[in-house]
Amino acid sequence: MANAVVNERTFEILQGTYVLATMAKSKKTADIIDSTNSPILELLSSKIPIFQSILHPGLPIIITGFGTGHIICHRYDPSKLQSRLNRKRKLDIATPDKDAKNGSKMKNRACTWTRLDMDVENGTLRLVDIEEQQQSIQETKDLGVETLWKTKRHRGSVRAICFDANGDNIFSIGSDNILKKANTITGKVVKKVNLGSFFESEKKKNDKFTKLCISQTHPFILLGDESGDIHVLNAENLALSNSIRSIHFGDSINDIIHFDKRSAYKFISLGQTTLAYFDVRDKDAKPNTAENEDGKILVSDDQEDEVLCGCFVDPEVADTLLCGMGEGIVTVWKPNKNDLEDQMSRIKISKDESVDCIIPTLQDDNCVWCGCSNGNIYKVNAKLGKVVEVRNHNDFDEVNFMDLDSEYRVVSGGLENIKIWELSSDEDHKSLESDGDDDFSRSDESNSDISSSDEGEVTLVGLSKEQLLDELDKDLNHEEEHTGGEESNQKSSKKRKLMKDKNKKKDLYEHGIKKFDDI
């Protein structure tokens, strides 16, 4: 009898433990919000793979590089795109579905944002009508998007592109190993260099480059290659000033992060299963190993998982670094605690899926955006150590790159499409809708071609160079006037303010040290 009572009591305890565990698991799952936010714009490339896309730091301009070596520059009107999205949402709710049993019909109706297919060869955009499953040619500038210029920039694919600190110029490198600097507004090449000319060995001449990173305070640019070397070039004349070799013991450079909080010349690189921390001025620097304890390149412990990407949660504070890993987790690093010797903790994102790209939200919310190989993007709260929001970029394609536009919309991209997502807060929505009726009209003058000192030519679509500059200046001035006194719009200018502040701080970096941390 006593045994029966004990067994019954044991069963009750185990049952209670199971219920509590189930409730805890349900609560944890409930905390992850399946986002209701939609893109305001989706750019598709049905014929040619997209390799990278970057957003201008101060203007609604997106530049995209393709697998064929083409680069296209588009300008978009966020308020017009948001207003169109809101109208289609209301129409979708108001219009009853005659065939509710048709699952595919319902799925198509859910796509209320503007979808445009990019014709890389001629730079035109075609509106993709999902409901009718057909493409129709329209005046896309009436929809809030237009092509500013397009060019065949590289032989082979575009491997990496980036803006300079102010967004005045773009740098691009292709599989042809030619680095080119071009004017952002016109697309005209102002400087180029064959990187193979810097090296003597045939192996180095044929090494492909994987990453570009530019200093926000000093005129130099870093290029990472497949051999684990990082080359430092002058951003003005593209001359080679230093090479740091075999940082990750011969493995490819996956990412480069500027650690300018510590020093203007300090950078972090990621490759294979390690993280490295170095000074770009060090000549003949070697990794610190058991055989070479005096090495100037500080390499982390082996993470036993590939380190693919990284970013600081808040680049201005730079006290927490998050790295995306090959097995679906994000590792948390604290440079002020152990000088990046090893990770401090980890955050689970998606099991058996790689975290391929990561960027900070820059919203003072301790969050970052992660792009995964399963086609989802995840908003991760670094302070809480968990995923707080999920958005679907593509059901069949990986998220290969991410960025923020000038108003902090997250932008996700893969081989097939790019999505510019709407802002989250209702206040931001109202701000956008108030400008929804602004005219986005342009001159209908015939296209003008400008020689780009290049293999191909840059085609300016719709406007002359002077008209483009005037229009962009007007919009930027109007934007700055409109943002005065409004807290939500002050946040939108943080990205530009951050760059201006960094330029003002150049004098602090005269000796390469801004703060005497960990010396």
Would you write up a description of this structure?
- The protein is an alpha+beta fold.
- The protein has a single domain, classed as Methylamine Dehydrogenase, Chain H.
- The chain contains 9 helices and 34 strands.
- Strand 7 (125-129) and strand 8 form a beta hairpin.
- The longest helix is centred in the N-terminal third of the chain and has 30 residues, at 2-31.
- The radius of gyration is 25 Å and the shape is globular.
- Its main location: nucleus.
- Residues 429-459, 471-506 are annotated as: Disordered.
- Residues 429-445, 474-489 have a biased composition (Basic and acidic residues).
- It is found in: Nucleus, Nucleolus.
